[in-house]
Predict the structure.
Amino acid sequence: MEYTRRRKSVAIFLLVFLFGLVLTLVCMGCSVDTSIGLKNSRDDITGHFFKVEKCGVTRPPILYPGSKFIYQDISLSTGQSSRVAMEVIKEKEFEHKQAYWIEVTGRGMNYFNIYDMDLNWIGLFGDGKELESADPCLQIFKWPLAIGDKWKSEYALRDYSDSSHNVQIRTSRVDVNIRTYEEVRVPAGAFKALRIQAGKETFWYAPSVGWVVREQIRPYGEPGSLLELVDYRIAL
């Protein structure tokens, strides 16, 4: 599936979303104390979770440079795992859209996943050049988020990675469904999260974190992989 290939190259997460990446909880127009540092400080702000989660469901969080997520990427076929770091580097225009540039590093990788202001993936940038773009976007988030919501994400994928400089364009469609709101446990802790099904992939988006804390990727005919949040910091 086109979507699975995109997210695998991107997420290894991009939560992702992706991701995904370093994200903040500060939501536009919300009067909430968001002085969150490392995950170990979460207990100090438990009283604010309800307001933060409500904000994180009705509108996308704002991402600030310096926010960082660290994931463990587990192969479901071999059980081997590796670390992947995602950090918000800057907010800069991409394909005539204001966007977040999130650097992905780990396992010898170093590239940018690019997301629009609604946290939907719109491009891939590496080696000093644009590698891929999605028009209008790969829409995993459609705000406000509500259990039972369904939609089809249709987009044109442009692939610029051909060494002959030919642009390959393919049209793709992904069926997205917000299934439930449940607790999910990952190495970073336990989070209340919306479980979102997108094709053969499942995302757990935690409003109190502002990003995907877990992602299960199951390509057709392959065991797939599991991405889980290990640690994070929120920059303000």
